[in-house]
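In this supplementary section we document a worked example of the pipeline. Step one takes a protein sequence of length 394 as its only input; no multiple sequence alignment statistics are reported here. Step two produces a three-dimensional model, which step three serialises into structure tokens for compact storage. The input and output of this example are shown verbatim.
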Amino acid sequence: MTPLSCLLYLLGIHVTYTLAGQCLSICRDPDDCPPEAPQPGETPPIWQTCPGGPADGAQWACQASDIDFPTVACLVADMQTCGLIGAGGRSTVFYSFGATTVEARTKFRDTLNPKGVMFNDALDEDYWDNVLSVPKFHMDQSARMTILVARYAEAMATVSTGEVFFVVQKYNGDGGGHGAYQLPTDTTNPNVWRAYEFPTLQRNPAVTKVTSVDLSNNQNQHVDWQPNNNDPQLPASGASDLVVPPPPPGCPQKVKRAAAACVTCITFATPGGPTGTVSVSGTAPATASTTPAPTISCTLQNEDPDQGINTDYCVCSGSTFPVLSVGTTATGPDASCAYTTLNAASTIHPTASLPVVTRNCQVCTVAVNSEQCTPLAGCTPTSASTPKPTPPRK
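The serialised model returned by step three reads:
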């Protein structure tokens, strides 16, 4: 299967990125990246497509030019235009607390007639590719993607009608509570169901009941909430009030799902529920290469006062050059001679720049493996000697 069937659904907000090659990818299904093959007896596509859409010449609400990031209101309008939620008696199916996407889909959603609508169905792949994946939304930034998930979740709960189902791994939660009122075991991050979905459903006058589905007990159902039944009400969702972080610097890339695109998943560690996955498809912005530039073969001539060499210098391709600054990125004994280019103008002229010493009435210019000496006028040598050549470096 191609990355096109990698769908987005997040039940938590703890986000980390992994990068494969130079591409980012957004998988909308938390347990399905890379996407699974259809289950036995299933016929693709696994997820439903929007029966409706904008009128000819019109656009989706979230495509409006004055929207710089999807709002709950525009997502609600587009889900209504899509026409899946509630259409033909379709029930909405949420899930969390240990229930995986595949389990919620195959063990419950697909058993409903007509099929229920999950997070991945509320707006189809074509919508994600052409509306939510535009560069101006910067969905390649995980913090912005987290805000989208919260707003998408609230919008889906806002559009829901009739009986709504909530699939859990088991009715009595590990963190306390039961069914729809379960508590997450990890309270460091908001749980999407408790923070955005369930509170919105409780305030939605079109919702008649919230029924939990226990996967561990043969999909046993239990009505956990009904309006006017004195059931506890959670604090209102604040997805619309979440501050959208500024877009990252650099050239934005269109989020794109295609067979040739590489897939990288953003892992969502779900408090009190399964690990989810979100991704952004496309080419990541180019990064500077960390490969060091090739160096030219040079050797360092160390200072050697005994041989009349009073400073360090470099010998490169038969010419002499000054040592480089200490800030060179090269390492090792010849680091200060790690030249990447040779400029003839920077060469040291042996007779002008190399160390000059006076010894036994001779003026000597020291070069590698040799000295050039001339007599010093008016000088009487203290002993007969000949210049001592510099020994070869070993």
